[in-house]
Amino acid sequence: MNYNFNFIEKKWRENWKKNPINQKTSEKENYYCLDMFPYPSGNGLHVGHWRGYVLSDVWSRYQILNGKYVLHPMGWDAFGLPAENYAIAKKMHPATATEENIKNFKRQLEEISAIYDWDKEINTTDPDYYKWTQWIFLKMFEHGLAYEKEMPINWCPSCKTGLANEEVKDGLCDRCNSVVTKKNLRQWMLKITAYASRLLEDLEELDWPEKVKKMQADWIGKSFGAEIDFNVEGLEDTIKVFTTRPDTLFGATFMVLAPENELVSKLVIDDKKEEVEKYVFTSSTKSSIDRMTDKEKTGVFLGRYAINPLNGKQVPIWISDYVLADYGTGAIMCVPAHDTRDFEFAKKFELSIVPVIAKDGIETPLTQAYTDDGIMINSGQFNGIKSSDAKTIIADYLEKENIGKKTTNYKLRDWVFSRQRYWGEPIPVVHCEKCGVVGVKESDLPIKLPDVKSYEPTGTGESPLADIADWVNTTCPKCNSPAKRETNTMPQWAGSSWYFLRYVNPHNKEELISKKDMKEWLPVDMYVGGIEHAVLHLLYARFYTKFLQDIGVVDFKEPFTRLFNQGMVTKNGAKMSKSKGNVISPDELVENYGCDSLRMYELFIGPPELDSEWDDRGIEGVHRFLNKVWRLVSYNKEVSANADLERERHKLIYDITTRMESFSLNTVVSGFMEHTNNLIELQKKFGGIDRETIKTLIILLSPIVPHIASELFEVSGNTSSVFDEKWPQYDKKKMEDNEIEIVVQVSGKMAGKLKVVKDENEASLILKAKDLVKTRLENKQIIKEIYVKNKLINIVAK
User: Which of 161, 163, 75 minimizes the C-alpha distance to 119?
Assistant: First the structure.
């Protein structure tokens, strides 16, 4: 009767393979619980990964006990930089490395005993899967959402590939932490900006953490303002700027273009060309974050002037790296009197500073930019107006005079979609000299990635695929003339932006998803994963879903109804990583303590939404607790139920259920510990515990520690599975205590407490109170006896 976790866990794992606990019946409602699928790294899973997978499995098992048929699948996000970089380091082919890593991951995931339906397994590198990744791209191409553009992009010199803005964190590549520079390359882009307003507005409807919604809203970055045209003096060209402050236009005394702005080479005068070209090159070697945060302002005058459209004054045109080509129009009007960066730039290069807003409408010397609201000055007909009102008044005037227009701008940029790497989905288009860029025929999908020996990135801006002549050379689907395949590949996000749709039926050869399957299962009910994907995967998945809704593939606009972001598990105050030497592998812990102990400790370690510090000793306490539960149940002598046992049972159900529903899983575990101690005391008091209370405890424990719960359910005389049971229900009336504590006072001062039966007769209670405080009443006359029902007795005496 000892708790032999090795025997028990092996026994029940084998049992569940033969008799899966998650069975479809006609009365069961479908429920889709999904983990963010992992990319199979060579390091395997550590206890931080386990946390998310345990959370989703506990929730899935909880839904099963609440009468749901649960889709809880698993797969592999196996294309992209992480897998390829690992393969390069190990001098292996990415396909071989990925296959080996997946085997190890599956072994570790099976030790969690999560109820994954492996029949639904997907792999983004499987041609049967990426056929549909390519199909979605073709549809975007047909609808004008996928396009080519030569532009300066984020470039990782270590990974030797372009990166999307979302893949750059604090100026560093989010995969290898190298400093990101800029490189001018031909790129495939996805027009995610066409969905900016919908991506922003629909956030309000989501049951997601507010932090994630704010991160996405800030990334999309909606702002209201005006587009204004500045004519270039002596040329036919105009420079378009976007500003959120049209009220400051009279104070625009110079303009700054991004060094990459295509107008730079056209506007620069001959005497300035060499200086400008040198500055443009230097800027291209700096990361966007460095350019935005450099305290020392740099720049070069182009030798040309624009004309301020409101006051007709000359405005010198400069370039500076603090202006980015991919934000707004890549050009700004500079108002040094009311913008800190512009003020610093003007001071350094001795440019004119004209205040157009003053606190009380009275101009005073400026020692720094004035950025508050105030009264308009030096602004012609708009003098004396509040600056807050002038924003709209001047924007209206610009529209009326056809020199600008009110507009909404978004910080969100189109998605840089191509990668100059081998390990990714081939982009399904060809380049034909006669027809231009042509999408392949749908019947030719998938365009398979060729098997090659050498796949290392070239660093030239060309993919390694460009050197495979027999793969590159093909015929045009339109005119049958010779053509060349696109050699850039898709980013790792391509396959993960829609994978949740494919799990429903990964064996469907005819369509991405059938209408029947879509209506039965989607959107996803619960999505569990890390917050680090807030403006990468989660934003891209929302974009793909909205596009697929537009073309009739799905009938919903948001992919994930509810989102839960688990916190990281840290060790020595840092995120677990091999380089830091602080990785805790679950393998040895499972061997020494069992899967159930590790599952429960992963939950107990702290609030699931917060980062938690790993304590090597913590799992020992949880393991001791499970031994305590084992003894409580396996050595129990069944007794008849009574009011005390029934009260404890309903309190247990209430506490665990309410905490489970609020996803406060660490307090679920502490609740079990508290109530188990209560049951042990009741077991001593009554010589045992009734059958229903023991059964209730086991059912409630089963989502968290399924092996020991299943064994104890069987030991208790049950022949069916614990997961065939229904989640217990509580009755609040039965939770109420019959025994209460009443305060006893003498002349308003605390004198003691009485434990009595609730609603006991008042006369009886007063007699007990007098007896309790009889020494305090000696030689005193009782004047009054006051009773507040079930709360207080006050004996007034003198």
Answer: 75
**pLDDT tier at 314 (50, 70, 90 boundaries)?**
very high
How many residues does the structure list for the chain? 798
Strand order in the sheet with 161-163: 161-163, 146-156, 181-190, 415-416
Rounded CA gap, 87 and 54, in Å?
A: 29
Whole-number Å distance between alpha carbons of 151 and 165: 13
645 within 8 A of 709, measured Cβ to Cβ? no
The Cα–Cα gap between 755 and 769 comes to: 10
- The Cα–Cα gap between 375 and 247 comes to 10
Helix (H) or strand (E) holding 140: helix 127-142
CA distance 40 to 642: 54
Asked if residue 575 has pLDDT above 90, the reply is no
Task: Tell me the β-bridge partners of 565.
Answer: 529
Q: What is the pLDDT of residues 501-552, one digit of tens each?
A: 999 999 999 999 999 999 999 999 999 998 888 888 999 999 999 999 999 9
Residue among 170, 336, 191, 142 nearest 250 (CA):
336
pLDDT at 45: 85
Beta-carbon count within 10 A of 622 CB: 23
Q: How far apart, in whole angstroms, are the C-alpha atoms of residue 534 and residue 642?
A: 51
**pTM for the complete prediction?**
0.86
Structure-block tokens of residue 62: 């909880």
pLDDT at residue 151 greater than cutoff 80: no
Chain position carrying tokens 């690992």? 86
Under 8 Å between Cβ of 685 and 648: no
Alpha-carbon distance of 61 to 66, in angstroms, equals: 9
E-strand ranges in 501-648 read: 524-530, 560-566, 569-571, 574-575, 612-613
- Cβ atoms within 10 Å of 319's Cβ, excluding its own: 27
Token digits for 359?
A: 């606190």
